[in-house]
Specification:
Elements (H helix, E strand, L loop, with lengths): L13 H9 L1 H9 L10 E6 L2 E6 L2 E2 L1 H5 L4 H4 L3 E6 L5 E5 H17 L7 E5 L5 H12 L2 E4 L6 H11 L3 E5 L1 E4 L2 E4 H9 L7 E5 L12 E3 H6 L10 E2 L5 E5 L7 E5 L2 H15 L6 E4 L6 H13 L3 E5 L10 H9 L3 E4 L1 H9 L3 H4 L8 E5 L5 H11 L6 E4 L35 E4 L12 E5 L9 E2 L3 H8 L7 E9 L5 E6 L3 E4 L2 E4 H9 L4 E11 L3 E10 L7 H15 L8 E5 L12 H8 L4 H5 L7 H14 L3
Parallel strand pairs: 4-17, 6-7, 6-8, 7-14, 8-11, 11-12, 16-17, 16-18, 18-19, 19-20, 29-30
Antiparallel strand pairs: 1-2, 3-13, 4-5, 9-10, 14-15, 15-23, 21-22, 22-24, 24-25, 26-27, 28-29
Helix pairs in contact: 1-2, 5-6, 7-8, 10-11, 13-15
Bound molecules: 5'-O-[(S)-ethoxy(hydroxy)phosphoryl]adenosine (WTA).
Length: 636
């Protein structure tokens, strides 16, 4: 099979590319005009590095652009085709969604929520989640969605940091047939927080819950409330949401996104990458708790008045055909998922997808991790039947939307399995060395972004300094992505994973520092180092090395159990290590830095020779000695 797939749907649009290259500010200004603004901006970009202000002075509302603008033509069109894990289904038209959002916006107002207040959402994948997000944005409240797999302790940190006045949750949610108790977890998280004034509880399961004075039931609140709530004209820079994500140090950081620039970025990229048409049925499998769900389940499809499928549960529940079943049932035309999901589906063999009618699909997408070329080819052949382009979209929580992707809705270019092809128009991306110098073709380096782009984060919530330090200090004038990449001779980008201590486990972002600090807070632990090693399905899995305090009497079996349960309680099940090794000491360089690459090599049975030259500041003999010592002392 050839390695180039010359499939595209659009006409090669050199004009768009040329304008974007010559004047990216005017280019984005033209894109912004495709949205509905209450008043125009005075200045397209105010760039005071590293703070970018897009469409300064313009007034806009996200909920208005997602809902009100469609009421004249599409009020009866389905917006969300919701499929519950247990087989239930619901259809919400653009009118239904509009009414629900306005009602909830009135409820929030009646509970004292004002423009600028924060509201935390801890909900399963049910329509009430997008309804809540849009109700917040309608009145200018900033939402903070927390993935419903996070623990009470993780929620506590996030609610404390954002000082949310209201938490919206559900009694429980379904996951692999069991009920996850969400309200109980919220109760635990907020028990000491007087600043949380109310909790709104949706009923999703039959789980028993205990109500306190602060708790209000969603259904009761929505009963006698007006269906009209005008969308608030908000500054383009008004904070639309905070989304906490893991970095290299400390606790998760609150990535803050604005309104006008973010919506412009989503509106453009959704059209270019997915070539969206009125007749499409879009299905993105991401959970709304992560950025892909925020951008490409909630905001982008609704800005375009598209119909989308939203699925509540695990992708392989109750059986590994669930996704194919949903695609067949709803005649999905565009399917957007992760390499981890694809690797899992691929393992189940071709017979399963082949036994479903997938002929409605015309375009495929992937996101979140590098996709192996053989998985790409499988996706292309078995799911796309060799007729659908695959958009491999590279981006981050911080970038708001896609930055590197094939764009079948804009231009036709040959695809190469495993490459996201080229940057979208209007952004300048390079692969550079340690000094910020552009590297020649096919040389591995760091991916940087040289100009501001509209979906760019505004800052980190309440911490401008950390924002500068994290993204704008390695290079003075470039945004540092934390990813390794290569640019090939055709100008195509190949993403090679993280260059820092952030892990990507099944596409989920996990910080090693966060995990290490959780492990060392265990009473019997003296020191710990965490790393990721390659995994056939999940891309990477977590391995932890632990040095115990002297005089610890407990068995390693018991300690392993305790540590795993601690991680689940402090962070959530997604951060559970695959293996914990108890060692007598951690290998360190003379300057005291943990030799992480050595740990990685040991855990994945690599050869010592491959790493001995890589470890900063360590002599070869030092690495060898550390390697031998570690191997000797390693006990599972
Ligand atoms: C990785 C997810 C290769 C990358 C949208 C990035 C990818 C991190 C791709 C951000 C891709 C995302 N190919 N790697 N197509 N998309 N990544 O914030 O390492 O959860 O830095 O955003 O995912 O993860 P985040």
């Amino acid at each position: 099979m050839p390695d180039l797939y010359d499939i595209g749907l659009g006409n090669f649009d050199t004009e768009t590319r040329q304008l974007a290259n010559s004047d990216y500010v005017s280019f984005w200004e033209n894109q912004a005009k495709k949205l509905v603004w209450f008043s125009p901006w005075d200045k397209t970009l105010d760039w005071n590095p590293p703070f970018a202000k897009w469409f300064v002075g313009g007034k806009i509302n996200a909920s208005y652009n997602a809902l009100d603008v469609h009421q004249a033509q599409k009020s009866e069109k389905p917006a969300i085709l919701w499929e519950g894990e247990n087989g239930e289904s619901r259809i919400l038209t653009y009118k239904d969604l509009w009414i629900q959002v306005q009602k909830l916006a009135n409820v929030l107002k009646s509970l004292g929520i004002k423009k600028g207040d924060r509201v935390t959402l801890y909900l399963p994948m049910i329509p009430e989640l997008p309804i809540s997000m849009l109700a917040c944005s309608r009145i200018g409240a900033t939402h903070s969605v927390i993935f419903s797999g996070f623990s009470a302790s993780s929620i506590r940190d996030r609610i404390y940091d954002s000082k949310s006045k209201i938490v919206i949750t559900a009694d429980g949610g379904y996951r692999r047939g069991s009920v996850v108790k969400l309200k109980e977890t919220v109760d635990d998280a907020i028990k000491d927080f007087d600043f949380v004034e109310n909790t709104i509880v949706c009923k999703r399961t039959k789980t028993e819950i205990t109500l306190t004075d602060k708790d209000k039931m969603w259904d009761d609140l929505m009963e006698n409330v007006s269906e009209k709530c005008e969308a608030e004209p908000l500054d383009s820079l008004h904070p639309l949401y905070i989304l906490y994500t893991s970095g290299t140090t400390g606790k998760p950081k609150g990535v803050l996104h604005g309104t006008g620039g973010y919506l412009t970025h989503l509106h453009s990229t959704f059209k270019w990458a997915f070539d969206i048409k009125n007749s499409d049925v879009f299905f993105c499998t991401a959970d709304i708790g992560w950025v892909t769900g925020h951008s490409y389940v909630v905001y982008a499809p609704l800005l375009h008045g598209a119909t989308e499928v939203m699925y509540e549960g695990a992708p392989d529940f109750p059986n590994p055909s669930r996704m194919w079943d949903i695609i067949q049932k709803y005649h999905v035309t565009i399917f957007y998922t992760t390499p981890t999901a694809l690797r899992m589906f691929m393992k189940f063999g071709d017979a399963l997808p082949n036994s479903f009618d997938l002929s409605s699909i015309r375009l495929l997408g992937t996101v979140g991790e590098p996709i192996n070329p053989e998985v790409w080819r499988w996706y292309y052949r078995t799911i796309g039947k060799e007729k659908c382009p695959i958009v491999d979209t590279w981006w981050q929580t911080e970038t708001g939307g896609m930055l590197i992707s094939p764009l079948p809705g804009l231009e036709t270019i040959p695809l190469k399995p495993g490459s996201g092809t080229r940057p979208i128009p209007g952004v300048s991306i390079s692969v550079v060395d340690e000094n910020g110098i552009d590297l020649p073709a096919n040389t591995k380096g760091y991916l940087v972004i040289k100009n501001p782009w509209p979906g760019m984060l505004l800052t980190l919530w309440g911490d401008d300094k950390k924002y500068k330090d994290t993204y704008w200090s390695k290079y003075a004038n470039f945004y540092y992505s934390g990813d390794y990449a290569i640019k090939d001779e055709d100008g195509y980008f190949w993403l090679l994973g993280r260059a820092d201590d952030v892990l990507k486990v099944a596409g989920h972002r996990i910080g090693t520092a966060e995990l290490e600090s959780c492990i060392v807070s265990h009473h019997d632990v003296a020191e710990s180092a965490v790393c990721g090693i390659p995994d056939e399905v999940k891309g990477e899995v977590i391995i932890a090395f632990v040095v115990l305090k002297e005089n610890t009497q407990k068995s390693s079996e018991l300690l392993e159990k305790e540590l795993i349960s601690k991680i689940r309680v402090d962070i959530g099940a997604i951060a559970t290590p695959k293996q914990i090794y108890f060692v007598s000491k951690l290998p360190k360089t003379r300057s005291g830095k943990i030799m992480r690459r050595l740990l990685k090599a040991i855990a994945s049975n690599d050869k010592i020779g491959d790493v001995s030259t890589l470890e900063d500041g360590a002599a070869v003999t030092e690495v060898q000695t550390a390697f031998e010592e570690l191997q000797k002392s390693m006990k599972k």
